[in-house]
Write a structure and sequence with these properties.
Layout: E1 3-7, E2 10-13, E3 18-25, E4 33-39, E5 46-52, E6 54-57, E7 65-70, E8 75-80, E9 89-96, E10 105-106, E11 110-115
Parallel strand pairs: 2-11
Antiparallel strand pairs: 1-3, 3-8, 4-5, 4-9, 5-6, 7-8, 9-10, 9-11
Length: 116
């Protein structure tokens, strides 16, 4: 079992930067794939990025967002730069167990609002 807690969301202006954190509790953190997703009301949850050995990003955030992780601290970060109003949403971190394709564990989300 893994529990995930996001933090770091807030209200920023377009062009600003923000860093989200995702702290995990549980064992074998280093063996999990980790992802970031975001969701706005009335829409599906969208993939932002994923890290497991290598890191991949959605085209919409590539070059602006950076995912990093410190397994010793059981923490993952999402550094967001050059934020745009369309980046607004609730950001969730998720954990993908070893050998699984699905994300079985989700945090509660943190709100990011980017004003124009």
């Amino acid at each position: 079992q893994v529990q995930l807690v996001e933090s770091g969301g807030g209200l920023v202006q377009a062009g600003d930067s923000l860093r989200l954190s995702c702290v995990a509790s549980g064992s074998n953190f280093s063996s999990y794939g980790l992802g970031w997703f975001r969701q706005v009301p009335g829409k599906e949850r969208d993939f932002v990025g994923h890290t497991r050995g290598r890191t991949t990003y959605a085209d919409s955030v590539k070059g602006r967002f950076t995912i990093s992780r410190d397994d010793a601290k059981s923490t993952m970060w999402l550094q967001m730069t050059s934020l745009k109003p369309e980046d607004t949403g609730v950001y969730y971190c998720a954990a993908q167990p070893p050998g699984k394709a699905s994300y079985n564990y989700w945090g509660q989300g943190t709100q990011v609002t980017v004003s124009s």
